[in-house]
């Protein structure tokens, strides 16, 4: 916190000690008064029966400061923390809590490093974890009331059932399809959507805090709901939607919610199921987790890495040390070099191809019309990826991301900007990688082993690869259309913009090269990187090869989907475009290959395949230096078949 306060911390005597804050009683209008309990030994807390609540919430260093009293001395807190402390005050006695913004001296970088290593114990030993989403409003009250009511309608046997059992349930509280179609519930679904999109859910620290907690409770103002009920509700909605066509009109408003519904995955992680448990979470898991949670926010960009260390094995925690005295650049480089040789794991010998996108695995049995039964598995529960592609982490990097420096003033820097090949985990604006969009299906470099080295004090990555082609023509990016749009408040407006982009590209592409035929199927497939919105199918269906611009425009703007296969296919195509078009644009290579390239690409940039990287990349000259512009999708290049007829020698690219 930037504001000064009179309260002075006492130094912790041991790395296994923490502080607890005891909130004293008072009315809501009173000044908040607390006492600090110093040097509480974690190793004896359980034996002595020390009870406390761990608080998980989002605090912002830039918020205006106000004062509370700790041990009769003033202490500066932000308005969100002040509101939470007022709601947590007991009517009598005191309430011991652990709050990182207060119980860790944020101005002491050494203490922060020591305490961050204890986060795993702090949350796992807490009696309860209170997940504070902020003060109550109309949406929050409506959402929590509805979720609590639905949970109460579930029989006890259903509330403890597996997701597969809940999937097949027919209880009154789980008939969500009827509730989605009922227009009288539209305000409730909108409230739930807004509730689940509160900025708390984009906070990277909450992943570890919820995953390690024994008894979490979701709290908003004076209202709360048990995590089990909250997760049960979201899981049931997910199950009903996943059983049906995601393009159906009455599911549209839920698609973004379920795409971003990390509570679903966090619950399975919290219970430590399967291979995805702490003893087996090694560097390969951390690499996938960094990619998966790349859009999450942290006040200190180093925490994008440190916040996940409580979920990995002791060996991995030992290899990556928490050090807030190191520059952000050094932390990112050291992590990149540590993870680079880690082969991404496969759960079975047949190489499961699920990427790092958040998904559930749900097994259910259906009775067919002929009386036979069929068991189906939908989704995957972990970070199960193929064994190859050790250089894939550079797909999270790029020239545009390396230029971004939206960090607090107090964060010490080394040389800036970052090298273009270095993933900038502090850049929260990047969308899913092509690896994730395709469920790790592509193998552009085949089985070629990476060859790389670092030079110029880790500012240059020298890596072997092939120069395939260069960029001859580029279309418009989504950003160009967004600048002319006054609002993106609804999904329909978002989709309308996307359809306008697709509309404009058709005419442009047909006239891009005189005498060259417009390949309709390749064009539509390229726009979505040959990928499907869910993991039910790996690649774009054949029906997408003949999309109708008029139908896309009608669906996006009129919010009406024809109840036929063409209408559903078109709506799903728009959903997929929302994922692929962010930060990308259509392009054509000199040899006539259709491509989806980063919007920072320039005419003449090179299309390359690097050894050990499953996705092609764009390299280009910027200020007389060769930089990584970013990953790209190139039609006819993604499965490695071109390697059989490759001509010319490989190159060693010195990427700045």
UniProtKB/TrEMBL annotation:
Pfam families: HET, Het-6_barrel. Residues 52-209 form the Heterokaryon incompatibility domain. InterPro entries: HET, HetReg/Transcr_Mod. It comes from the Eukaryota. This is HET-domain-containing protein. It comes from Apiospora kogelbergensis.
